[in-house]
Amino acid sequence: MNFLFPLAAWGLLTLPLILILHLLRNRRQQLPISSLRLWRGLQQKRHGTLPRNIPLSLMLMLQLLLATALTFGLAQPVFSFLLDQPQQHIFILDTTTSMTAKDASSASTHFDAARHLIQQHIETLGPQDSFAIVSLNNRPEILLAGDAAQKPQALLALENLVPGAVGVDLIGALNLANGLVDPQQESQITLLTDGNFTLEDTPLPVVQAPLQWQFLPASPPPPTESSNQAWLNVSARPLPDGRQRVFGRVVNYSNQPATRTLRVWADSTQVSEKTVQLEPQGEAAQVWTLPASAQTAALEIVEPDLLPLDNRAELFLANTTRYRVLLVSETPETLNRALAAQPGLEVTVDPPSARAHNPADFDLTVFEGNGLPPQLTTWPGGNVWVINPPLGHPLLEGTSHQRNLRPNLTGASVLLDGVDLSGVYFGRALQLALPAWAQVDLSAETAASVNTGQAVNQDSPLIFHGSTGQSRVVVWTFDLSASNLPARLALPLLTANTLQTLLAPAPQSVAPVGEPVTLNGSFSVVVPGGNRLFPPLEQKSWQGQFTRTKQPGLYKIYNTKDELVAGFAVHAGSALESNLTTRLQPETLNVEHSTLNVIPPPIQYYQLWPWLAGLALAVIVLEGWLAWRK
Amino acid sequence: MRLKNPFSRPKESSLPLFDEAFLRRLEKLSFRTMPRLRGALLGERRSRNLRPALDFSDHRPYSIGDDLRHVDWNAFSRHEELFVKLGEATQSVHIHILLDYSSSMAWTPEHTPRQDRPAAVYSKWDAARRLTGALAYLGLAGGERITITPFGHTLAEGFGPTEGKRRVIPILKYLSDLRPQPPLKGGIQGGDLTYSLNTYARLHPGGGVLIIISDLFDTIETAALNLQPAGRKQRSTLDQTQGGLDEALSVIIPPRWQVLVLHLLTEEEVHPTLDGDYDLRDTETSESLPFQLNQHTLAQYRLRVRAWCAELQSACARRGAVYGGVLADWPLEQAVIPYLRQRGMVQ
Questions:
Q1: Which residues on B lie below 8 Å from A57 (Cβ)?
Q2: Distance CA A585, CA A10 (A)
Q3: Does A36 contact B285 at a Cβ distance shorter than 8 Å?
Q4: In 3-state terms, what secondary structure has residue B262?
Q5: Each residue of A536-587: pLDDT tens digit?
Q6: Quick one: closest CA in A to B264, which residue?
Q7: Which residue among B105, B282, B304 places its CB closest to the CB of A33?
Q8: pLDDT computed for residue B42 by the predictor
């Protein structure tokens, strides 16, 4: 049984009030007797004039019953179990990096405390109850949702949750939680957070269930004890002689001055250690030069503080990103030179007559001229670049060759950005019907043929691209050897743009914790700690975004041959999360942020107050009848 | 909450105090007095004194002044000495009835009596007046002289002395019109038996039969009681009770006085049935005391009443008085008169 207006329980204070009134009204009865002389020896010392025993009477009982009935009626008791009303508890769990901070008096983190609260609730779930956990970070998402039947799995998944994100989107999290509210259930939303963010003036959205703020810890430590130092803006830049210059800022997020020891590691060798004096809320910029042979660097603040995650930052120093390109061509020299000028490419040349490599092992397969096998009826999987396709190929149905074409730059796509094609002519290009899956990037303009004098179609595509099946295809219809393009700077630029269209760019070298990193191709990732992940296989809706970056450290990307092809670092330090002194105080939460945005759940309860009101009315009538009769 | 019983008996009974049939039945009874008791001559009661008479049973030597008609001349002829013939003398006894009319005598229980106890027909005051009237009629019918004197704090103006059965109507009218003494102000106790008996003895040096009808509450001296330690209260109360009545009876001593003490109480005073929290208020002094009455307290009270009555009886025995405890609830004819006959007061 629940009460829709529990404050009415204060009405129970009328019960002792009624008793007191009866005690006052029913003072000890005066009884005349013939003489007190025989009673004197039996006199009992009494204090006051009130009788000790409550004078029980029918009127007193009726008045107590009346007060009780009215109080419970005002409290509006409801029997939700009569309707088999299940309960739904939605937790909005702060998963930002600041939740990994520890209290000065406790060894567990704030996130551990929040997780413990949720675990306790899940363990007490009723058979009809359900729960959901929504993350509170810059990208709110549903972390867990289930009911009592999924209790073991939920507890295990909850145990494996790892916090790590920068910033919060409270409105998004509330909207997400509000969308989970089941109107057929008695829902409750609990926001578990350390309050390490600020509420903007934008009003919070209205939610369909009572919203409870629960701060961890409940009583925040004073700002003077919220000492934390962090690495920020850690980066590296190669010097001309091959050495690496590493830069980083160490910031003191404390209201007290701090002295900290900084250590720098190149690979697994410590190369520097220094002590810095940090003013309150001050910072110190540090620069180190590491040898050219160093592959990784690590910066470390030795002394522990409340947030250990941001005390260490690591970097990849060598550019390890490599793409493997298979060039199938009878005359690969020109294109090979253009590809060789691109960074991070490993080009393998196969003559068409003696193919020795499987395109599936390469990130890109380039078919030039007759290199495109005539028996190929479907595009091979992966990235395919076709240059000067042969006439009559089943995949690209060309009708004839056109000659002396000039590019029409007015309709060029982004693939031609930064490419100067002025003065470039194409001596021979295959005229073909544009496939349905293709989009034209560059077409030829109308020009008189030098030799034949025939007019060509203005829509003749020179470059187009598209995706068909499992393949992403770019087609250059012109012959490089019959054009002056190889002699222009435009060829490597156009080649780079084409490669950028087909191949994903190299991942960023440093990412904030929790931020997704764009990765393409077939690969595996070794995360800090040594676990190897296969994102394209593990993530159902893989769209090239690697999101499991909640652990700070080095993430190494390996290709299918288990070769290190790329890597990036994740840093936990940030101005938003590392500064633990700017905590949202619970008392600053005004009504607008807490209770006013609650709409009573539209649950059909079995209301009891009409019965209680009827009982009170009956008692009043009975009392009146008794008083009249008396 | 204890409700007042709407069916409680009114304080003044609507029944007549005396009825003619009852009085006629009393004519057959008479007081049994001590023969040595002195009374007025020419009564109907035999006296232990002998006086000169024609019907003689004894002789005494003649002395100057004796009536010569009572000289036994036959004896003079034989013994040549003058002897006077002596016969039995008759006398009438003066019966003094002291009726306590203090406020405590007018008390009637206001609370609900116990279910197993029938409501009393007459109140204590009615019972006292009926008893007084019955004894007065008994005396008048036996040719005795009757004096009725109410007493409270002091003696009040009474009725009598009178004699003769024809005076019974004025006596009964006097009793019917007699009202109890109102409560005195200033906490003064309503009755003072010692002072009243002292005064009465001085006013009536001839003595006689003295019948005291009272609840005797004023014989309990409490002035010293309040100064006693708490643990000795009960014993002190009884001691003072004994002293009070004993002292009062010390001035009314045989053989001049033959004393009958009729201790009149109600059943509710002897065995109260109260239960709960009360402020008990003394009807005489209007003093109130808070009590939480329960079985334990009432048992102590009943023990105290029993001891008090025993001590009163003992005090009466020491002073040659007859003690008779009478409950106001007793029917006068069926209970009180046989009770007095059993104690040798009437025959």
A1: 1
A2: 30
A3: yes
A4: strand
A5: 766 666 677 788 888 899 988 887 778 777 788 899 888 888 888 777 766 6
A6: A34
A7: B282
A8: 56
- Do A40 and B233 lie within an 8 Å CB cutoff? yes
Alpha-carbon distance B224 to B216, whole Å?
Answer: 18
The Cα–Cα gap between A26 and A23 comes to 5
Query: Rounded to whole angstroms, how far apart are CA atoms A227 and A215?
Result: 19
The DSSP annotation for B153-183 comes to SSB---EEEEESGGGHHHHHHHHHH--PPPP
Name the band, by pLDDT with cuts 50, 70 and 90, for residue A421. Answer: confident
- Three-state SS for B178-206 is CCCCCCCCCCCCCCCHHHHHHHHHHHCCC
Whole-number pLDDT of residue B229: 35
CB proximity A52 to B under 8 Å? yes
Q: Which of B110, B276, B287 sits opposite A36 (nearest CB)?
A: B287
Backbone angles phi, psi at A231, to 5 degrees: -90, 130
Structure-token pair, residue B17: 């105090």
pLDDT tens track for A243-288: 888 999 999 988 888 899 999 999 889 999 999 999 988 888 889 9
Residue A46 forms contact with B (CB below 8 Å): yes
Q: Element (H or E) spanning A240, and its range?
A: none
Q: Is the ipTM of this complex over 0.95?
A: no
Q: What confidence tens digit (pLDDT) does each residue in B247-276 have?
A: 888 888 888 888 889 999 998 888 888 877
pTM confidence score: 0.46
> Using N-to-C axis directions, what is the helix angle for B124-141 and B168-177, rounded to 10°?
170
Residue A37: list chain B partners with CB under 8 A: 217, 220, 222, 237
Residues A609 and A364: their CA atoms lie apart, in Å, by: 75
Has residue A158 got a pLDDT over 90? Answer: no
